[in-house]
From TrEMBL:
Keyword tags: Membrane, Transmembrane, Transmembrane helix
TM ranges: 6-29, 75-92, 104-123
InterPro entries tied to this protein: DUF6249
Pfam families associated with the record: DUF6249
DUF6249 domain boundaries: 9-121
Record-given protein name: DUF6249 domain-containing protein
UniProt entry tagged with the keyword Nucleotidyltransferase: no
């Protein structure tokens, strides 16, 4: 196979494959740690041992908290700030807005606006 064809193929595989591999490794590690923890707790309960209070507190802290509308507001504000930073960077670099990086900045910016709206709606319906 010619090197001119091989380089783009490898670049595409690494561009899309590496994030997938990283997420898969993280998920696999979390699942394995969770299974080991459950096995330890199950063994301790079967032997009739009492679990220490610190251990139980650690288990309760490791449970993910329920998402609130305030999380959406926070995520929306962060994404809009990222979009603003990208647009500012583009303006400082080129002296103009409306092309190139400004279009790319619209993606996180509009997602941020949508999250902000969802968060505000959630806060309003929650207070009623």
């Amino acid at each position: 196979m010619d090197a001119k064809i091989l380089i783009p193929i490898v670049a595409i595989i690494f561009t899309f494959g590496m994030p997938i591999a990283i997420v898969a490794i993280i998920q696999f590690t979390k699942a394995r740690n969770n299974a080991e923890l459950q096995k330890t707790v199950r063994t301790a309960i079967e032997k009739g041992e009492t679990l220490p209070a610190d251990f139980l507190d650690g288990l309760q802290r490791s449970v993910p908290k329920a998402k609130t509308p305030m999380n959406d507001v926070r995520a929306g504000m962060i994404l809009m700030a990222v979009a603003g930073g990208i647009m500012l960077w583009h303006y400082i670099d080129d002296g103009a807005l409306g092309d190139g990086l400004s279009g790319i900045a619209a993606v996180p910016g509009l997602i941020g606006v949508a999250l902000l709206i969802l968060g505000i709606i959630g806060l309003n319906t929650r207070s009623k």
